[in-house]
UniProtKB/TrEMBL annotation:
This is Ribosomal RNA small subunit methyltransferase G. Belongs to the methyltransferase superfamily. RNA methyltransferase RsmG family. The gene is rsmG. Its main location: cytoplasm. The keyword Cytoplasm applies.
Length: 238
């Protein structure tokens, strides 16, 4: 099938060999997203090649700069239409994944999509980081927290680091020169028990789009007062 060959070619360009099953799941997820995009605003990107590159490949580039073999649990904060969490789950089926979004109808869609795709070990949660970050079910429970949300790093660090186990990682997907943001987030990372580990830059194949991954390592427990109450992290970053 032409679409499977195309998808496998794109993944080969980032040194990932898709199985037929993984390619079929990704294609099914694309179809579901298009179908449900007519009922709710999931994505402005609908053209096939653009969707494959800017959603699937972009989500999956993380595997080229982070060793996923030791990652057993992942939380995707502000997952939106399921990126990067669902493509990462398809690539690494043994991952235990929690998808979190603040819009309930999106969460309901994601739960349906995961069921349709036959993905086991995925939990879809409606909630906000400021609340879930204090819930013992989620606080300091994850090997890896990722976010492709648009908030600046000082805010994302406060939202995401509380979910990460000591020794685990938080990785922010960023789309521009992040030097200034990284400097701005130094204080937040220190207060939350994390340190900057690496900044990785990858190009989406067949485009000029650069994706920057900012990786923080959790080095100690996050103080109980973080994350602060709803609205504070964005209004008054650490």
């Amino acid at each position: 099938m032409e679409k499977i060959r195309k998808l496998k070619k794109y993944y080969n360009n980032i040194n990932i060999e898709l199985t037929d099953r993984q390619a079929e799941q990704l294609l099914q997820f694309y179809s579901l997203t298009l179908e449900w995009n007519e009922r709710m605003n999931l994505t402005a990107i609908v053209e096939e090649d653009e969707f494959f590159l800017k959603h699937f490949i972009d989500s999956s580039l993380l595997a080229g700069c982070l060793d996923m073999n030791g990652v057993e649990s992942l939380l995707d904060l502000g997952t939106g239409a399921g990126f990067p969490g669902i493509p990462l789950k398809i690539l690494f089926p043994s991952l235990q994944v929690v998808l979190v979004d603040a819009l309930n109808k999106r969460v309901q869609y994601l739960a349906m999509a995961c069921d349709s795709l036959g993905l086991e070990g995925v939990v879809c949660i409606h909630g906000r980081a400021e609340d879930l970050g204090h819930d013992t079910l989620y606080r300091e429970r994850f090997d890896l927290c990722v976010s492709r949300a648009v908030s600046e790093l000082p805010v994302l660090v406060e939202y995401c680091v509380p979910f990460v186990k000591i020794g685990g990682s938080f990785v922010a997907y960023k789309s521009k020169d992040v030097r200034k943001e990284v400097e701005m987030a130094e204080n937040a990372a220190s207060l939350l028990g994390a340190r900057l580990k690496a900044v990785h830059e990858e190009r989406i194949p067949e485009t000029e789009i650069l994706r920057t991954f900012v990786e923080y390592e959790k080095t100690g427990p996050t103080p109980d007062k973080y994350p602060r109450k709803s609205g504070k992290p964005s209004k008054k970053p650490l």
